[in-house]
Write a structure and sequence with these properties.
- By secondary structure, the protein is mainly α.
- The protein has a domain of 30 residues.
- The N and C termini lie far apart (54 Å).
Length: 108
């Protein structure tokens, strides 16, 4: 038999959690190429049509405007992960929010 690398070829779970049969695969968190290309394409369209977009938004009712802004914001704003805390706390709480400062998605 040749080298096996698929999920079904690992019946004894010899790989650790989060590990695959391809250690040289795409790093975790890296968007696939088509997702990145679509994101860049939409950013170009919006940046070339800012005046028209503003007029279109102004012509919408407030609900439609916010719906539209919400839909396109995922292409321009960082996303945040939901975090839930439960239980009783008898002391001060310090919350730190970190966001990706990578400017590769910045519109110029």
């Amino acid at each position: 038999m040749g080298l096996k690398t698929g999920y079904r070829d690992n019946p004894k779970n010899t790989w650790k959690k989060g590990q695959s049969g391809n250690p040289n695969g795409r790093p975790k968190g890296t968007p696939n190429r088509s997702t990145q290309e679509i994101k860049e394409f939409i950013q170009q369209i919006v940046s070339k049509n800012l005046d028209c977009l503003e007029l279109d938004l102004d012509s919408m009712n407030p609900f439609q405007r916010w719906q539209t802004l919400e839909k396109i914001s995922k292409y321009f704003l960082p996303t945040f992960n939901k975090t839930e805390l439960s239980g009783e706390i008898d002391t001060d709480i310090k919350i730190t929010v970190k966001y990706d400062t990578d400017d590769s998605d910045k519109i110029e």
